[in-house]
Design a protein that fits this description.
The chain has 2 helices and 9 strands. The protein is of the alpha+beta class and 125 residues long. The two termini are 23 Å apart.
């Protein structure tokens, strides 16, 4: 998860997110792969929820990073693929569990589940 925006800015790099060359600019990491301890996969009828368990260190940094970025976007990347980029409405509290709701077509959900399952310990629900 990285801070993101649609226009260039110092400290942000361009990330091509589509086949037609459109993209966005991503900056500071909010959460990296190493910050995630485990993932709970929760299946919905038309959505997928990933319950992330993160390290204490990452949980301690999240409030500062998100508080300073309220109103900006956060890019959720899995295997360098943009799967969501919501607006940060409020700073995150210090917590070691975060839920990410992803509204994706079924074929994309299966791809994300496979990528997540190979990277972190998972629990399926």
């Amino acid at each position: 998860m990285r801070l993101a925006q649609e226009s260039p800015a110092p400290g942000y790099e361009y990330l091509d997110t589509t086949k037609d060359g459109a993209g966005l600019y991503v900056g500071e990491d909010v959460l990296s792969d190493e910050d995630i301890v485990a993932v709970q996969i929760i299946h919905g009828d038309s959505s997928l929820v990933l319950g992330l368990e993160i390290t204490e260190e990452a949980a301690a940094q999240s409030p500062r990073v998100t508080r300073d970025a309220v109103g900006k976007r956060i890019a959720v990347l899995i295997d360098s693929r943009l799967v969501s980029w919501p607006v940060i409405a409020d700073g995150l509290a210090m917590m070691t569990h975060i839920q990410l709701g992803l509204d994706l077509p079924r074929s994309d959900r299966e791809e994300i589940i496979s990528a997540v399952s190979t990277r972190w310990p998972t629990a399926d629900r």
